[in-house]
């Protein structure tokens, strides 16, 4: 999917692509995934629907690539010399406003992802699997440094822990996730689960 999509999109400038992605995300927050149509995207971005389909194939891939475009550069490139430093740095790359907007996007996709196979597949291929792989590389470095035991049973759940905290903060506390909340969560929950004692 990725190679084909890259070939399709080669005729659009990066600036135009960013403009399209921004419009898609705005629409997604406004109306949700099911009500978002390629006609609406075409109208909002002054594009032809045929161009959108030629470049992205369909709504699912367009939406997920738009979401991925908002993420800062690869997290696996973060290397502070400690797992705690790496995780804190990753959290610090999005401010509280960005996190609140991301919660709105997750809410817009929550039901649709269970009902739409194309969306679920695109989300896994373009967003979930690359992010899981990047976290795996970060944790592998921590293992090589001797910070985390290779047989630690919590290793398979680090992404679940982080996504769970991000996704459920609003539901449980009626507050959006913030940098302060996620950093304290990493120190109180994630690192101890991995056998890493944060500084007192």
Write structural notes for this entry.
By secondary structure, this protein is an all-alpha fold. Helix 6 packs antiparallel against helix 11. The chain is 72% helix and 0% strand. It folds into two domains: 2-68, Tetracycline Repressor, domain 2; 73-193, Tetracycline Repressor, domain 2 (Orthogonal Bundle).
Give me a quick take on this structure.
With about 200 residues, the protein is mainly α.
CATH homology superfamily of the largest domain:
Tetracycline Repressor, domain 2
* CA-CA gap between termini: 47 Å
Ranges where pLDDT stays below 50 over 5 or more residues in a row are none
pLDDT averaged over residues: 86
Order of helices and strands: HHHHHHHHHHH
The CATH architecture assignment of the largest domain turns out to be: Orthogonal Bundle
Number of domains: 2
State which percent range the strand residues make up.
under 5%
Helical residues, percent:
over 70%
Strand elements, count: 0
CATH class of the largest domain: Mainly Alpha
Principal-axis shape equals elongated
CATH fold name of the largest domain, please? Tetracycline Repressor, domain 2
Which structural category do the helix and sheet elements fall into?
mainly alpha
Radius of gyration: 18 Å
Total number of helical segments?
11
Main sheet record: none
């Amino acid at each position: 999917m990725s190679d084909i999509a890259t070939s399709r999109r080669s005729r659009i400038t990066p600036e135009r692509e960013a403009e399209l992605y921004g419009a898609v995300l705005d629409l997604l927050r406004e109306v949700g995934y099911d009500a978002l149509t390629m006609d609406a995207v075409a109208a909002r971005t002054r594009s032809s629907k045929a161009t959108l389909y030629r470049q992205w194939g369909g709504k699912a891939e367009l939406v997920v690539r738009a979401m991925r475009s908002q993420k800062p550069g690869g997290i696996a490139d973060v290397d502070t010399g400690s797992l705690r430093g790496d995780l804190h740095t990753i959290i610090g790359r999005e401010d509280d406003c960005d996190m609140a907007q991301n919660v709105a996007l997750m809410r817009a996709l929550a039901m649709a992802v269970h009902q739409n196979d194309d969306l679920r597949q695109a989300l896994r291929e373009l967003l979930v699997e690359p992010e899981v792989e990047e976290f795996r590389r970060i944790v592998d470095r921590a293992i090589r440094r001797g910070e985390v035991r290779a047989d630690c049973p919590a290793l398979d759940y680090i992404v679940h822990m982080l996504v769970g905290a991000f996704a459920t903060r609003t539901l449980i506390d009626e507050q959006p996730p913030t940098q302060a909340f996620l950093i304290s969560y990493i120190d109180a929950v994630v690192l101890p689960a991995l056998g890493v004692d944060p500084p007192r």
